[in-house]
Amino acid sequence: MSSKITIIGAGSVGSTIAYTLSNEDIASEIVLIDINKKKVEGEVMDIAQGTCFRDPVSIIAGEYEDAKDSDIVIITSGIARKPGQTRIELTQTNVNILKSITPEIVKAAPNAIYIIVSNPVDIMTYVFTKISGLPENQILGSGTMLDSARLRCGLSEHLNIAQKNIHAYVFGEHGDTSFIPWSGAYVSGVSLDEYYETVEKMGRNVTKIDKDAMLEYVRTSGGQVIANKGATFYAVSVAVCKLVATILSSSDSVATVSSMMHGEYGIEDVCLSTLTLVGPKGVQGKIPMRMTKEEVEKLKASADALKAVIAQIEH
Length: 315
What we know:
Elements: E1 4-8, H1 12-22, E2 29-33, H2 37-48, E3 58-61, E4 72-75, H3 87-108, E5 113-116, H4 121-132, E6 139-141, H5 145-159, E7 166-167, E8 186-187, E9 190-191, H6 192-201, H7 211-229, H8 234-248, E10 253-262, E11 268-279, E12 282-286, H9 293-310
Parallel strand pairs: 1-2, 1-4, 2-3, 4-5, 5-6
Antiparallel strand pairs: 7-8, 8-9, 10-11, 11-12
Helix pairs in contact: 1-2, 1-8, 3-4, 5-7
Protein name: L-lactate dehydrogenase
Active site: 174 (proton acceptor)
Binding site for NAD(+): 9-14, 34, 39, 64, 94, 100, 117-119, 142
């Protein structure tokens, strides 16, 4: 596959994405850009020296102009929250970084599909959508792809069934107001409740999921990893690379990515994650999933929480 991918930001997430892409036959050209020139050159040298074990790939430490003709641009720039720093303060700092990057990269790669990974990802996706001047179909955030992967991992371990047989999602913000629409959780075509009954008839004893505990597991997994090792970057990098492969494939797929809402579920003018059709032309639209009234209210509450933060920042 011949494709050019530019990654802005060579921190833990950006460099791990570059490394993961270098091990897969997704990209033929990778450009890594960072304000810290020595760091990005070191990352590129380290990654490039391992590429002899795969089909040829070009990987360079570049400038914005090197992103010309990129198929995909991945933005990971930003800082992690410091002790004592409020979420609003972190948001404003990372929005300011994004505002400095956006005109430069959009000028170099106006036709690329942009994947926003920087946190808080929903607000960063919203700001980029507002200031970039690009068509909305070219812009998406990594959203709750990782949260949904964590959910499937947890369900798989509990039910002792392969993750590929589980269709369940996390909606809303990539953060504290995310939620699981359990009415749309299925195992091989049957609802969770039906699945319990089915396996019991087979003589298997499956304990019912503690839904509150599962949501807590999903929401706190990132914080637990950060507490244990300082940062999260492997799982999110795999999720982003899967998204890259989806965009570069020949057909669309459904993913929980963050993109602008236009009245779906009664929500407008905010970016968050619901089922979204994504493919070679970027965001194709939302897939409406039947949800209970209570679940729709949770999605609206998530949207309101994001809007409250947006109202407090300069963008």
